[in-house]
Inverse folding.
């Protein structure tokens, strides 16, 4: 029996607990069928935590997250907490856990399942078979750079400013994540910057070039961000792994996600730096929010959460085969025509959150028999 894998589950608010429930179904299946034991603990974050403790995240939860091998998060927030004080709003809990765990690398895959290619805003032939991974720097750049602020100008009016700053270690660690992921995938890495205008991203490009010889098997290219935005909607399949700054990654990953058709299908991972033993903090969460409009009605699509779990198997536990098994089961369920409301189209079978989860587990059963 493999060693226990410590996972902290933070379902959060709205549809968070509903979609997390379907991940529990896979965990139970793996426990019983695949001889992998997960040591699960569950805690609260976000609005529910504000109601109970007047804070969106408890210190004990941060400690539990630090000692876990991986954290699985649903989503936080909702109209009930829209007017709480700024420093205890649900999102503050999310920002704090990312910061305290040092999660500097955000991984956003954009994968188009063939059965859903028509749900994309782009033409089927442009997105069919799409499988790209955007690696976004998450803790530096213009979102955090100092000085920043808004000042009154002596003659009237104001001056607003932010600073785009990156250092060698910051660029090197995110670039290495990009190279290493490219090595495990299609061996192509595209670094995106604005080196023709911004000195800090010219330096970014030079640092990426400097470490490239450590990865001779990866074909490195560079692209300016304006061109990258165009290429992502013109011919997204030219990319394998993209690595970029915090702000460019924020924008480009949302742009790429639309190629896939639905928020309910998009997983993500955020990784910290490896320690001496190679262990790194990691948090896995769907891209979508708490969907208050459908919460508690059994309508939520659990697949983004289940695919986030698959990313956890791959990146925290090196369980490539099991990750692939979950992804193939999701694909099979879609091929069979099962759809939650968000991805429904004519001729398909509308199912609830739990029916979708049960169908994925039934496919796992077939494949692992
Ligand atoms: P949202 O992602 O919650 O919902 C947008 C739309 O997509 C809604 O119509 C919703 O029903 C639908 N949708 C989202 N996920 C779905 C799923 N799994 N299955 C089926 N349909 C799904 O975004 P929003 O409405 O802008 O935000 C709602 C709340 O969620 C807000 O309080 C916001 O702050 C919060 N939020 C949290 C996170 C997070 O925790 N990471 C991210 C985004 C938004």
């Amino acid at each position: 029996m493999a060693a226990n894998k410590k996972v902290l589950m933070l379902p959060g608010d709205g549809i968070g607990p509903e979609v997390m429930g379907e991940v529990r179904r896979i965990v139970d299946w793996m426990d019983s069928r695949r001889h992998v034991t997960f040591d699960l603990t569950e805690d609260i974050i976000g609005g529910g935590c504000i109601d109970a403790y007047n804070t969106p995240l408890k210190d004990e939860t941060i400690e539990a997250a630090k000692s876990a091998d991986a954290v699985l998060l649903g989503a936080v927030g909702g109209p009930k907490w829209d007017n709480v004080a700024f420093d205890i709003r649900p999102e503050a809990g999310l920002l704090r856990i990312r910061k305290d765990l040092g999660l500097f690398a955000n991984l956003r895959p954009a994968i188009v399942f063939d059965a859903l290619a028509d749900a994309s805003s782009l033409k089927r032939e442009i997105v069919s078979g799409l499988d790209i991974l955007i690696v976004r720097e998450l803790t530096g750049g213009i979102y955090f750079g100092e000085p920043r602020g808004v000042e009154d100008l002596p003659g009237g009016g104001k001056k607003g400013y932010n600073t785009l700053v990156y250092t060698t270690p910051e660029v090197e660690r995110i670039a290495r994540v990009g190279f290493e992921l490219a090595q495990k995938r299609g061996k192509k890495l595209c670094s995106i910057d604005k080196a023709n205008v911004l000195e800090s991203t010219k330096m970014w490009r030079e640092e990426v070039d400097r470490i490239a010889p450590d990865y001779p098997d990866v074909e490195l290219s560079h692209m300016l961000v304006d061109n990258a935005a165009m290429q992502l909607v013109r011919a997204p399949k030219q990319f394998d792994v993209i690595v970029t700054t915090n702000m460019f990654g924020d924008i480009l990953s949302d742009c790429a996600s639309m190629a896939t058709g639905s928020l309910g299908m998009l997983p993500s991972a955020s990784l910290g730096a490896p320690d001496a033993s190679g262990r790194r903090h990691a948090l896995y969460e769907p891209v979508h929010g708490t969907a208050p409009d459908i919460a508690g009605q059994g309508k939520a699509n659990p697949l983004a959460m289940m695919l986030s779990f698959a990313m956890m198997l791959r990146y925290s536990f090196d369980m490539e085969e099991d990750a692939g098994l979950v992804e193939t089961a999701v694909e099979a369920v879609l091929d069979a025509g099962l759809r939650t409301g968000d991805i429904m189209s004519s001729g398909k079978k509308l199912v609830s959150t739990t029916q979708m989860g049960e169908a994925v587990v039934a496919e796992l059963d077939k494949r692992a028999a």
Q: What stands out?
A: The CA atoms of residues 180 and 337 lie 36 Å apart. The chain has two domains: 1-107+283-369, 121-260. The two ends are 19 Å apart (CA to CA). The pocket of nicotinamide-adenine-dinucleotide is lined by residues 15, 19, 75-78, 94, 263-264, 285, 288-294, 300-301, 304, 340, 342 (CB under 6 Å).
